[in-house]
Amino acid sequence: MKNKNYKELVNRFLSAVANNRILRLQGEFIPFFVVTDWLKYYDKNKHINNIYPVLGIKNKTNFKFYVIDGKYAGVARDTFKWHLDNEWSLKQNKKDYDLIKKEIDREYENYFNHFNIKSDSKTKLKLLSKVYNQIIRLVALTLYIERLDKEIISEVLSEYNLNLDEDKILAVSEIIDFIPFETKNNKFIIDVLKKKENLQKLQHVYSDYTYVGSKDFITNEVSKLDLKKISKDILFKEKQIKANKMKKDKLKKSLNKKEKKILDFINFAIYCRDDRKEPVQKSLVLMYNIAREIIFGWGIDKNKINNCLMTDILKGKQNTINKLAEVSKREIGFVFLLKKNDNYEETFTGILDAAKIIDSRLGEESSFNIKEIKGHVGSKGHYKGRVKIILNSNEHSKFKDGEILVTGMTRPEFVPLMKKSGAIITDEGGVTSHAAIVSRELGKPCIIGTKIATDILKDGMLVEVDANKGIVKILRK
């Protein structure tokens, strides 16, 4: 890895972008140490590919992650086509997904019940490599779900000249007939407490993409829980899901064979987007814990882990030590280019300038000239209120009841804010997105995929959210 001038990295990325649209993901949504292998996928022949190059720009409080949208969307579009052409098996995809989930569950249980933390670094590295490869396989199997949206579905159906009731298919798909992530977490908490198991087994519940909860933190959080209320909520949700399933099965009978085939694809994508959070969180907890112990055994500060690359750690002690200067600099910020061949280049200067160049390339207009923003409907409804932009977890305490949550994309740790919000608006997301799924559960108006909401809208703006049409109107700046 050679240190480059930020302009070289930005220009190289823009050269690869050519006339494609850039998709910007921002916030604290992914740990740097695992990002280098996240955007890989399996093609229809089970060969591994990626959607690189990817440009990452991080300052102390925010991480902007730029991808070529044509490549990202192309994974969803191609997989949907393979499904329609019977060149790709949804049944096999489900089977492979369930298999990897079971592997991750088994490693998670073994780690907390049997793993000897005093094991030598060779044993720990072997386990780390195993878990790392599991999460890479998991994401590669399911990358297509991340960018699937109504627009892609419509484009493919039009290309295939399929005159189907698309709105009806999507309406049926929006009925949630599976136990959602939050409820599964609550059931796990109840189970651990009943069995009086090690509270650290709850780490995946009390973690997100930016931190892993310590034992003291978990103990404190558990002490605040109203277990009777949680148990009551679980029973209510299970009854609701049972009713939803009956309703969905009945509506599905009214679809023809081709419509059912399309619905099955969308259904699994929505289910998987929510269900995948648990194995992802468990994998991140395992990698975080094991990698911290490994570098500590090598005489390196455990807190360095958040800015280490997992691929560098897996190459061994000396390689990791050789990277420590870069690791320390990453704490402040960096510009990082991940290349097609899996190699990377980075620089630690020009961070703000690099972001300005890329953001201007997005073609965003001045907020002064824009009176409304368009996106896709995540959950129908109508709401008028004040905007609050939340990009990082340290901003959550600023959010007030009834405000309109505006963010790049929501994640599990955003659920408390979503419950307090009057409506939700995101830059990114499709029919399978966390924002769409959770907002439908909560009955909150939600507009997803606006691309520019976090740039155009400002804190305190009075806006009207028409989530029946996917339009945000700016009433007062």
Task: Walk me through the structure.
The chain has 477 residues and is α+β, with helices and mostly antiparallel strands. It folds into 3 domains: 6-148 and 278-357, no CATH class; 165-255; 372-476, Glucose Oxidase, domain 1 (3-Layer(bba) Sandwich). Helices cover 49% and strands 14% of the residues. The protein has 19 helices and 15 strands. The protein has an 8-stranded mixed β-sheet with strand order 8-15-14-10-11-12-13-9. Strands 1-5-4-6-7 form a 5-stranded antiparallel β-sheet. It has a two-stranded antiparallel sheet with strand order 2-3. Helix 18 (434-442) links the parallel strand 12 and strand 13 (446-448). The chain is globular and about 60 Å long. The model has no long low-confidence stretch (mean pLDDT 90).
Strand arrangement in the largest pleated sheet: 8-15-14-10-11-12-13-9
Q: How many alpha or pi helices? A: 19
Structural class category:
alpha+beta
Gap from first CA to last CA: 46 Å
* Global morphology: globular
What's the β-strand tally? Answer: 15
Name the beta content range: 5-15%
What oligomeric state do the depicted chains represent? single chain
The percentage helix is 40-55%
Q: For the residues shown, what is the average pLDDT?
A: 90
Unreliable stretches covering 5 or more consecutive residues:
none
Question: What profile does the largest beta sheet have?
Answer: 8 strands, mixed
Count of domains: 3
Computed over alpha carbons, the radius of gyration is: 22 Å
